[in-house]
Structure formats: C-alpha cells, structure tokens
Amino acid sequence: MKWRQKLRRTYTTKPIQWSYRGMGEILIGFCYGWLPVAASCYIQIGQISPLVHWVSLPIAFTIFNVILINEFPDYPADREFGKKNLVVRFGKERMSKLYALMSFAALCSYVLAIITCVPIKAFFSTDLFSFSLFSQLFMCFKVITETGKNWRGFAIKP
Predict the structure, then answer these.
(1) How many other CB atoms are found less than 10 A from the CB of residue 153?
(2) How much is the average pLDDT of 48-67?
(3) What is the pLDDT, as a whole number, of residue 71?
(4) What are the φ/ψ torsions at residue 2 (nearest 5 degrees)?
(5) Cα separation of 106 and 156, whole Å?
(6) Interval 2-18 mean pLDDT
(7) Cβ-proximal residues to 85 (8 Å cutoff; 6+ apart), any chain
(8) 78 and 54 in contact (C-beta within 8 Å)?
(9) Are 65 and 71 in contact (CB under 8 A)?
(10) By the 8 A CB rule, do 29 and 64 touch?
(11) Which one of 42, 52, 90, 106 is separated from 83 by 20 to 30 angstroms, measured CA to CA?
(12) How far is CA 117 from CA 94, 96, 107, 138, in A?
C-alpha cells in the first residue's frame, strides 16, 4: 500500500507532477485498475496469479476513461495554466477517438478474459462488473453506429 500512496502523491505534487506531463491518466489506470486487484490477490493467496491481469484490464481501461472524460471540461483552464494532460497535448478530437478506442478495449478485454481463463461467474458476481460491461457494450454500439459520421457528434464535443 505504501507504493500506491507514493505514486498517488506524485500525481499532482512536485517534483514529478504526472498529471501535468500527460502521464497521470496512465498512472491512475495502473494504480486503481491493476494494482488493487494484484495486491488483494497477493494478500489472499500469497502470489500474483496470471488471472489477475485478465481481471484487472477491464477495470484499468474503464478507470482510464473516467479520468480522460473528466479532462474535457477542464481543457481551457488546463491549457491556460500549463497542465499538459492528454487532452491538452493531443487535442479534443484525438482524445475523443482514444476514449472510444479504450471503451472498445475494455469490452474486448472482458471477452478475452472469459475466453482465456476467467470463469464467467467472476464478472457477473457483482453489480459493478455487470454495469461496467453493459456500459462498455453501449459505448461500442455508439462507436459502431457513429463510424461514418463526424466525430464531433460522438460522445464528446471538442
């Protein structure tokens, strides 16, 4: 847990400030996606099973997207004050495409996890996983139906 706390502190505090360098989103995906799952697995069985990676991927992709979508309304202020997160670095249009891609990656990781080694009961035993899965299905449906249209009309208005 100390490792996670140290990483969390470097998100906005000097000298590293990951959120100001475009790495904060990835750090949060790791710290709130893979790390808690791996740590709880290690505490319970004394090792990190390969199963951990498959279970944590959908969580990490979804958390990454939560952080990414919350940067869009802050774009003008972040740009003005020099906070170079992913949206400021690459622009709203590119990041709206990345948002859709990460939603699709989360859905694919659910499917791959079930195909490879994770029992299906592991994903549907909690309401959170079911909600996350259905929200990913909805986002992928939106991506497929909006493919030929202007990206400005999809999900996020740059």
Answers:
(1) 9
(2) 86
(3) 87
(4) -65, -35
(5) 18
(6) 65
(7) 19, 20, 22, 24, 25, 71, 78
(8) no
(9) no
(10) yes
(11) 106
(12) 34, 32, 16, 25
Residue with tokens 């999809």: 154
d(Cα 47, Cα 25) in Å, to the nearest integer? 27
Query: Which residue bears the tokens 């706390």?
Result: 5
* CA atoms of 38 and 147, how far apart (whole Å): 36
pLDDT in tens, 126-141: 555 566 667 767 766 6
Question: What phi-psi label fits residue 132: left (phi over 0), alpha (psi between -120 and 50 degrees) or beta?
Answer: alpha
Type of residue numbered 69: I
| Token digits of residue 50 | 């390969």
Residue 27 banded pLDDT, cuts 50, 70, 90: confident
Q: Give residue 154's pLDDT band: very low, low, confident or very high (50, 70, 90).
A: very low
Contact predicate 32/63, CB 8 Å: yes
Angle, in degrees to the nearest 10, between helices 92-116 and 51-71: 160
- For position 56, what pLDDT does the model report? 87
Residue 84 token pair: 């170079």
With beta carbons less than 8 A apart as the criterion, state whether 33 and 65 touch: no
